[in-house]
Design goal:
Layout (H helix, E strand, L loop, with lengths): L4 H8 L5 H6 L2 H16 L6 H26 L7 H19 L2 H25 L4 H20 L10 H7 L1 E2 L2 E2 H19 L1 H11 L1 H6 L4 H27 L10 H11 L11 H20 L4 H24 L1
Antiparallel strand pairs: 1-2
Helix pairs in contact: 3-14, 3-15, 4-9, 4-10, 4-12, 4-13, 4-14, 5-6, 5-7, 5-12, 6-7, 6-12, 8-12, 9-10, 10-12, 13-14, 13-15, 14-15
């Protein structure tokens, strides 16, 4: 009989770093491969200025991808977030032009976002309409209102202060990056350190247990959608600062990139599985992909297809890892 002891022992011996490598999400692998690829073909890709540019350009996406993570963890979806963000940007710009007050404009933008978040939450939680259908409807409403308010034109004349929020620096770091770090810290605390976060996990993983515990499921589900709407209002501040204007269609389709970043980061659409650091990796992967494709002169229409391909590649990596 052949000696199988040595063969069995050899199979049991782990490869160097295998436990660590096995735990790395697919987004980390894709981010590493994209960075290496664009560093090889894109001139100046790894320069400090370009890396800061990637981070700055990714902040708006991060601000809506973080709440999108929580929404997806509840087995939900918010297709209206891009259109609501555009509407919030229009309202913010109009209030600034009318009053000159940035704080009042930001409050108005967040208020609009909260209103749409409340509407989405009521449609999903109270009326039981599937999130895909309900948020698709509110997407059309938000986009239509933004176009009616502006007649399809940009709202200009926001002044010189608000653009500094996007182009300014603090201790050599762009201001949007500071906002992104602070926002992530807030969401990390909410999800992993508070009762709200525990309920978010339970809403997707064990909703019946919440009901048996006497927790108002509908109330907390509405709160999750309202948080997404509020973050759309905050993101509108950076969007308006970046464009130096409010445009009714500026962020249409950004919800697709947010959902892609969340999916790439490892959050699943069932059982309340979500990981905020993975969402950050997903956002960076999308940002690196867009930046690298811009450097090599790829059309924007092709970039959308590339983001979809990115999602498929990461899902394949995770599938292979699961089989292994």
């Amino acid at each position: 009989m052949p000696d199988t002891t040595a063969a069995t022992a050899s199979r049991a011996l782990p490869l160097p770093f295998a436990p660590i490598l096995g735990k790395l999400p697919g987004a980390a692998w894709v981010l590493l491969l994209l960075t290496l690829a664009f560093a090889a073909v894109g001139q100046g890709f790894l320069s400090t200025a370009n890396l800061l540019n990637i981070g700055t350009q990714s902040t708006i996406l991060l601000l809506i991808a973080l709440p999108m993570t929580l929404i997806i963890m509840t087995e939900g979806l918010d297709l209206s977030m891009g259109a609501v963000l555009a509407l919030c940007g229009v309202v913010l710009a109009m209030v600034i032009v009318a009053t000159g007050s940035l704080l009042l404009a930001l409050a108005a933008a967040i208020g609009v976002g909260l209103a749409f978040g409340l509407l989405n939450g009521l449609l999903v939680a109270r009326l039981g309409i599937p999130p895909f259908v309900s948020t698709l409807g509110t997407l059309g409403v938000a986009q239509g209102v933004a176009l009616v308010l502006t007649d399809g034109q940009s709202v200009v004349g926001v002044g010189d202060t608000i653009p500094l929020l996007y182009s300014g620096e603090l201790f050599g770091i762009p201001v949007p990056l500071w906002l992104a770090v602070g926002t992530y810290a807030l969401f990390h605390w909410l999800l992993y350190r508070t009762r709200f976060g525990a309920y978010v996990f339970a809403l997707g993983g064990n909703r019946e247990a919440l009901k048996f515990a006497g927790v108002s499921v509908n109330r907390w589900l509405i709160a999750v959608y309202m948080l997404g709407g509020a973050m759309a209002g905050v993101a509108a501040l950076l969007l308006t600062a970046r464009m130096n204007a409010g445009h009714p269609t500026a962020s249409i389709g950004l919800e697709f990139e947010a959902i892609a970043a969340v999916a790439v980061g490892g959050t699943t659409f069932d059982r309340g599985n979500g990981w905020l650091p993975g969402t950050v990796l997903g956002v960076l992967a999308v940002g690196v992909l867009r930046n690298g494709l811009n450097l090599i002169g790829v059309q924007s229409s092709v970039q959308v297809a590339a983001i979809g391909l990115l999602v498929l590649v990461v899902l394949l990596i995770e599938s292979f890892k699961g089989k292994a």
